[in-house]
Design brief:
Layout: H1 2-17, H2 19-30, H3 33-52, H4 60-78, H5 86-94, H6 103-111, H7 114-125, H8 130-137, H9 141-162
Length: 163
């Protein structure tokens, strides 16, 4: 029992230390704050259940990111949001600040396949190494590199089309 308590404490410390990075990743999938927090909560629940089943890996970072990514993808499959709901439209209209900083990039990112979007997000927005991404996604490093460069090419094409 002491080992499980130690693992839960380690998980808790890790989650508190990396909560902003986890939120950014979940938000990159949903584009909705409440949904991002729901994904994080579900991911934490899955992680705690895994600890109780003795499924705790050596690298907590890679392990939890994998849970978070899979939970995000599951959430998107279950809750496809193709258009903004009326409440979201109203909420955006009432915002006092305009956020224009990365609109073109966000639009382009939304047009590429989710697997490639995940790789780009982890590499460039979360600053993870390709080797870590390969472990998280259970793929070969060369496959990750190929998908990353293909994704960057797709992003460039999407952004050029918008211009």
């Amino acid at each position: 029992m002491d080992k499980k308590r130690k693992l839960i404490d380690e998980l808790q410390a890790y989650l508190l230390e990396n909560k902003n990075a986890h939120y950014r990743l979940a938000y990159s999938y949903t584009k909705h704050p409440e949904d991002a927090w729901d994904i994080i909560q579900e991911s934490v629940e899955k992680a705690i259940r895994a600890i109780h089943k003795s499924n705790f890996p050596e690298s907590i970072n890679n392990w939890f990111y994998r849970i978070l990514i899979n939970t995000s993808l599951d959430y998107l499959r279950k809750n496809k949001r193709l258009i903004l709901t009326e409440s979201n439209v109203l909420e955006r209209m009432l915002e006092h600040e305009d956020h224009y900083e990365n609109i073109d990039l966000e639009k382009a990112m939304d047009q590429i396949p989710s697997e490639i979007k995940t790789i780009i997000t982890l590499r460039y927005f979360e600053d993870l190494k390709i080797s870590d991404i390969a472990i998280m996604l259970d793929q070969n490093e060369n496959t990750i590199k190929t998908k990353l460069y293909r994704g960057l090419r797709l992003l460039r094409l999407e952004m050029e089309e918008d211009l």
